[in-house]
Every structure is written in structure tokens, then in C-alpha cells.
Description:
Order of helices and strands: HHHEEEEEEEEEEEEEH
Mean pLDDT: 82
Number of domains: 2
Amino acid sequence: MKKSSQNNVDLSWKRYIFPAIHPEGLKILLCFVGLFLLLGITSTILAWMGFVLCVFTFYFFRNPDRAIPQKESYVLSPADGVVSNIKPVIPPKELDLGDKPLTRISIFMSVFNVHVNRTPMSGTVHKLNYRSGKFVNISDKDSEDNERQEISLITTSGKKIGVIQIAGLVARRIYCPLKEGQKLKAGERFGMIRFGSRLDVFLPEGIEPKVVLGQIAVAGETILADFDGEQNKIEGVIK
């Protein structure tokens, strides 16, 4: 009898002590390992500092697997962190999401969160727009000063949603290898941001959020909204 794939899920302590690491972090980790070995020759104290940097780098770039909900109408969180803001905002014109205010859900990631970003819904990359920025603190103000990568997706239902990666104050660096026309699955890894940042999600008109301020979000698992809710509301009015 063929075993279920669920039986292959690693539930041991190893998944917490030795998690997978994102490829973007490997080169940085190797640099710190080399620094650690070099400092070990000159000073014990400096060697310990290098060791701490290696451990932190490994921890920061961890890339764990997630249990992705399989309902196509779910809008999943693209990032780990805290839901820091929910409010109507006019989306960037470059994303072709219209000129009316849409509900924007902001998720703030601290340096202790997993920074690998995941696709909120299955669909096709519609628009990409990159903006360089300054080394300024991330916040919930509607600022254009931060480095950002703006993404719009046409979902399998035909609706458009927006996702924006926003880099923070420390060592800003956005990684997003997406291309226009690329097809993505819900929960699929699509990029990351280094050392403190924020992810914004623009919901289509009429879609209500299912999260609240201060809620902890998990990338690829937490449900930010449900497109079925809009359909049920319409059917209720018709009846």
C-alpha cells in the first residue's frame, strides 16, 4: 500500500534546529563563516562575535515548509509578521488596479520573522514595478521613500490583487525574480526581503479582510480574506 505523503512530514526536533535555508542566504552565510574562521586566528572574543553572526544569518534566512490551504478563494498571507494596518488606500497606478481606494492589509516583519515571501493566491503576474529608495525606517505612513517591489496578479477567478514588498531601514535588499506573465500557485515562494520590512496586500473591491490588527500572520497559511465571502453576500441579497 502506498503511504500517504503526510507520513513523510518531519515532526522531529531537527526541523527546528536545522531548518532549510534560502539560497539567497547561503552566500552571506559563507562570508560570515570565512570571517569567523579568520577572526578565530586573531582573537577569541572576535571569533565568538563571528560565530554569533553565523548563527543569526542561518536563523534569519531559514526557509521552512508550510501547510498551504487548498481552497482557491482564499487570500493567504504573503509574509510572517504582525498585521500592523488595515485601511483603504489608492493603489499604485503602475499596478493597474484602478484609481479607487482598496482595502490594504499591511504585515510588518521584524528581524526575527521568516523573511521568505509567498504568493497570496494562484494566478498570473500581471504587472511589476520596482522603486529604489532610501535607508529610512519602515512605518505605516504612505511613504514613497522606501525601496519597494510592486506586483499585481490576475487570479484564477479573473480578479486582480496587489502585493508590495517594502524594505526597511537596515541593509535594505529586495529579492524578487518574478517576470510578467509568470504563473504562480498559492503559497509558492516568490522572493524575500532582508532585515526588517513590510508586505502590503491590496484586496479587490468588495472583499472584506478576515484578520484584525495585531494578529500574527504566517506566510502561506494565514487566511487574510476569502473571495467566496463576496459571492455568498451577493447570493444572500438576491434571495
